[in-house]
Write a structure and sequence with these properties.
- This protein is of the alpha+beta class.
- It has a single domain (about 5-95), classed as Alpha-Beta Plaits (2-Layer Sandwich).
- About 25% of the residues lie in helices and about 35% in strands.
- It contains two helices and four strands; from the N terminus they run βαββαβ.
- Strands 2-3-1-4 form a four-stranded antiparallel sheet.
- Strand 2 (about 40-45) and strand 3 (about 55-60) form a beta hairpin.
- The longest helix is centred in the first third of the chain and has 20 residues, at about 15-35.
- The radius of gyration is 14 Å and the shape is globular.
- This is DUF4286 family protein.
Length: about 100
């Protein structure tokens, strides 16, 4: 299978006392850092309206190689919140067909 673009989704919870700081860090530091890495094409955050972890981030990634760049290796993870996130889930999806 060729190294093609895919969607990378991350879901997490964080304790309420860290939630505000986590959200600021995610939007103002983590997203810009990731989007500056080769192969990280877009990013958007969501809040759950159902079961599972409260927060989700969805990324469009150019290929699996984007996880191996020196730039990504410097910024991956949850930075100062690494030990505070809970219920981490990762979902990776590839398209089944082109635009309809």
């Amino acid at each position: 299978m060729p190294d093609e673009a895919f969607i990378h989704i991350v879901r997490v919870d964080i304790d309420p006392e860290h939630e505000a700081a986590f959200n600021v860090w995610y939007e103002q530091t983590h997203f810009p850092d990731l989007l500056a890495c080769p192969g990280w094409l877009s990013a958007k955050r969501f809040v759950s309206i159902g079961d599972g972890p409260k927060y989700a981030a969805m990324y469009e990634v150019a290929g699996r190689w984007a996880f191996e760049t020196p730039e990504f290796l410097k910024v991956k993870g949850f930075g100062p919140f690494e030990s505070l996130v809970k219920n981490f889930m990762r979902i990776q999806l590839r398209p089944m067909s082109g635009p309809v």
